[in-house]
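Q: I'm writing up a methods section and want to include an example of the input and output format. Could you take the sequence below and give the corresponding predicted structure tokens, formatted cleanly so I can copy it straight into the document?
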Amino acid sequence: MNQHLLFAHSPDASLSQAIIEARQPFGAEIKQHIVEWFSGDTLDSIWTKSIETSGTIVMQDVIDGGLIFTTSTTSFDDNGLTFNNIEHYDHNGSAFIVVFRRITDNGEQMLSGLFGNNVINGTPRDVIYARDGSGGAQKRFHTSDASTGTSVDMDQIGDLLWTVYFGQVFPSHATMHSNGKLAVIKTTNLPSSKMQPYVKMRSTNTTISTTAIRYYEAWNI
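A: Here is the clean output for your methods example:
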């Protein structure tokens, strides 16, 4: 039996639902579906925060605010969100859309997608995610099976702009779109177990860094 989740945290939930359903084939059933707008001043309890040292994860209730991640002065400080370890999303057919950006350019990395083990402070496996890093590095599409992860550059230099990433995984390949344009098709090291929504920020030095996310959506295909 399919379970159905819909969290439309939007000022106009009916509009959100209409947009979501418009993307589906006529009569299609939306499976294990989450929509999170990161609006208001309180993060919903469907998410679990993971803060490695003394960084923060807080809502910013302003236009273009979203959920703000700030690191401490500890190098390789990892802060993130998981979905309470509820792994609804199929490694053979699922998708996500995420909108995030880096606010600073201090050596941080921001990434989001789906992953299959409950690890923020370490190396997650069975994942599919988009990553943006500072220092002139290119944006990347990363996937991992149970033992090995690999990344492919998106031919886009990291920046401080809001970017829409759309990732999909199928039995034989995975794809990543950035701002509506196909950026990567990947056929190696695909996830091999069910996954959950995932957001992570990492610092790479002792300078305080900040990133933000304002939209997350995932569903089974």
